[in-house]
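Q: Convert this sequence to structure tokens.
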Amino acid sequence: MRNLHPEDARRELPHNPALQRISYNITIFNIQTLQQLSNTAVEYDQVIKICKGLFIKKTRDYGTAWRILRIESITDQIFIKAQRIRTLEEKKISKVDEDITGEYIGIVNYCVIALMLLDSGPETPTELPIEFVSALFDKKVNETRELMFAKNHDYGEAWRDMRISSITDLILMKLLRVKQIEDNKGQTLASEGVIANYQDMLNYAVFALIKLDVK
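A:
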């Protein structure tokens, strides 16, 4: 089926002005939605490029020392960063030289670290080659990115109308869920596991960075 311009779609309908107006509006909405999804893909990739750039620089400096951490420690690190963001949002004053943007970047990277840790076994060495880590980073981000597009399809990019403070709260809520799951030794009755929650937090943090106009 060939692609139609909105005016083409209107002309090919029976001569019914009301029906033509409805079809025209639906076509315009679909075009705008596709354009917005395309913009999101570009913005998402720009944010990830910045986050990965910092992650790789730190990996060159420190190696993969994060491999020694247990997954609960990663959860707590993300919680500290999200809680600091909330404090800065409420108090508007920072006494430490790192702003909200830096904390959100940290959340993105810690979420990726969590996903990489969950993909590692006891046989995985502590020190990993930087090329391997870079490829694994991309793999986990791409999986999470696909989840983002699936949810955007269902929810219509509702996050664009959210306040950044609400995104912070959602991350904190997800963290409390993850901590409860961890305390229950990973057992859940009706909810998503920790991987899905880390992916959601990663995507929320990217959305916040897009809204903060990080490029």
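The longest helix spans residues 17-62.
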